[in-house]
Amino acid sequence: MQTELSILYRAMQQFLLYSLAAAVSTGMMFLDVTLVGNQLDELSYVEISQEIMLLISIVLFLRLAWKSIDIRSSSVLIAGFLAVCLSASSIVF
């Protein structure tokens, strides 16, 4: 019974975390378009939140690479790919 409750509790935590991430990204778009009147250009709340989420993902994959030896190479590869995406999105034309 205790393990079933802990599994249910963990699933509820994950659901709330994923819901919060979806709400933040949707809320940033709403904030950009409705309140600021921005048309989603290069310097907007959406772009800034996207770069912050990419940076968090990079840090998490590097932390995973540090802790897990068996999946270190794939975690570093994914973190490197996300770092390239972050640097490519930071270039303003």
From TrEMBL:
Ordered alphabetically, the record's keywords are: Membrane, Transmembrane, Transmembrane helix
Q: Does the keyword section mention Transmembrane helix?
A: yes
Q: Where are the transmembrane segments?
A: 15-36, 48-66, 73-92
Q: What protein name does the entry list?
A: Uncharacterized protein
